Amino acid sequence: MTVIVANATLTKCCAEGERGIHAQNVALFIADLLEDHSQWFAAGVSEYTLIARLQKAPYNLFDKEALRESLALFQTHFVIFHALYQLQLRWHAQGVGHLAIHTLKITLHETSEPSSAPIPSDPLRDYYLNWGNFDETGKDDVEALLDDFWQRMGGHISHDTLSTQEIAKARQVLELSADEPLTLGTIKRHYRRLIHQHHPDKGGDPAAAKQLVRAYSMLTDYVRASAQD
């Protein structure tokens, strides 16, 4: 892991079994840091831009290798998204606003007064707030999980750069028929049904669960990007 805090990388700072604990401390530090820089999210910022900013002085939170090796890339991405989802919950509770989190654009939609309504459920938030997913994802399975993420980091993928085959494959994973409308509600409904069957905590297949998360992320990003055009 190539996250750096106090000049200690996860690969050097501690034993293998302690890296998850160190990563949690890194994520907490980042959440606190980002809370003091809410202006970064006013106009929206991509995950790539955010990571690049945190790599540079005066922050120096990620070293230059953070995006070059697949496992390090996944762990960097996971730490960032964990911090963002923690911040989303924090700002919702404080009445600051809603932090919309997507790899292409992370935006703070401010509110004038606190909301008493609970924050809506989100399968992706549940995934990134579970450190078991960080610990259980190793070199053997990270390549398949990150196929589309490599494209996002290199080319800032958008709905019109996703191929028909990629969309069709994601539909197949979520058991969405070709003629079924592609809406956020439909995607979420199929995801929840399938993740309940395949979740490792319920005796399911971890690889299948990760495919579901990947397909869910791809299709929801696709639908949201399409709606903004």
Automatic annotation (TrEMBL):
Keywords: Chaperone. Residues 169-229 form the J domain. InterPro entries: DnaJ-related_N (IPR021059), DnaJ_domain (IPR001623), J_dom_sf (IPR036869). It comes from the Bacteria. It holds the Pfam family DNAJ_related. This is J domain-containing protein. It comes from Alteromonas halophila.
